[in-house]
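Anyone opening a protein record will find just a pair of labelled lines. With that in mind, the following record should read easily:
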Amino acid sequence: MTTISSRSDMTTLLQRFQQVRALTDRLTRDLSPEDQTPQSMTEASPVKWHRAHTTWFFEEFVLGADPAYRPRDPAFRYLFNSYYEAVGERHPRAARGQVTRPGVAEVAAYRDDVEQQVADHLAAGTLDDAWLGLVELGCHHEAQHQELLLMDLKHLLSGNVLQPTYVERAPDGDPAAAPEPLRWVHVPGGVTHVGHDGDGFAFDNERPRHRVWLDDVEIANRQVTNAEWLDFIADGGYTRPALWLSDGWATVQANGYRAPGYWSEDDGEWTTFTLSGRRPVVAAEPVLHVSYFEADAFARWAGHRLPTEQEWEARATSGRELRAGLLDPDRCHPGLAAESTLGDVWEWTASAYVPYPGFETAPGAVGEYNGKFMNDQHVLRGASAITPPHHSRVTYRNFFPAGARWAFSGLRLAR
């Protein structure tokens, strides 16, 4: 976290806080209570829970730092704590969809109450540096949950036989139009530095900045596209065990995978479920909703590999990249694959999610934010079409289990 040290910094933080809170409300304003309450799988959470949990974070760690503060409802501390063991017991994750009360209206009132109190403190300048740092962390935490909210909502809506639309958007262009040619970008080897340099906000898992040795590598100028994935399918990619890691092959067999998440084939035509309903697969878009297992198998089929996160970061800081699509609430879907580093889809890397040399967890309950998950996860880099603006950095380390594919995840090749 950064240190908020001046009145102008506090004014900027107040504006940022209000913008973040308003975006959550913008993303959920057209959803019914019925849309916001169910839970489609253990790994996903209801929309209503995301709205309440991000509010609880500010109440628990900012307002609650004042010994005189009295919570709006003591039960919320149990219902809306996610994984902070130091705070106390919490409602089971798998049962979040069973929490019909408090209802959506009461959660909205809870949001308004906590938001007003935090805003009043920021406007009055009554928070010390530690509290201000927690407000900043809370803003980035809510931005993470805005993306998770859309991921989880998409998974929920995809299971509805009506294939409902969350956001209307214009029809795509020619779905069969070819993607731009893939080119290779040389990344010279040698000693380089990776990790956040301390200028501005970063999560603890992005630090400390440290030296690494890289061999020469070439990394693709764009992500793998749907057109290339269709070639993988046509060549029996999902039926050839030699392409797959052992656990990946077991996952494919157990779940009957034969295409990315949300894809369906009817009379030889492939479609995919989007937040704008079911649409034809667009050949030139980056492939979306593939697991680490699938990304690794594709790279092996293509005769290449996934980049390490260190290689990815070295490529991203070379100064030649453009920022592609981040969250547009009126689209919520990738554009065409183009030369870029940040945007459209998160990119699986070959790197396990482990601490950087010298990593230290923050004191107190917020120290549970990232470090406790540094096992059995893989790192993704970049951003996606549902990553909020101001929430992407070349040092950002996203992470998911190898089998996860409801995230907006794709890949880029290296050789």
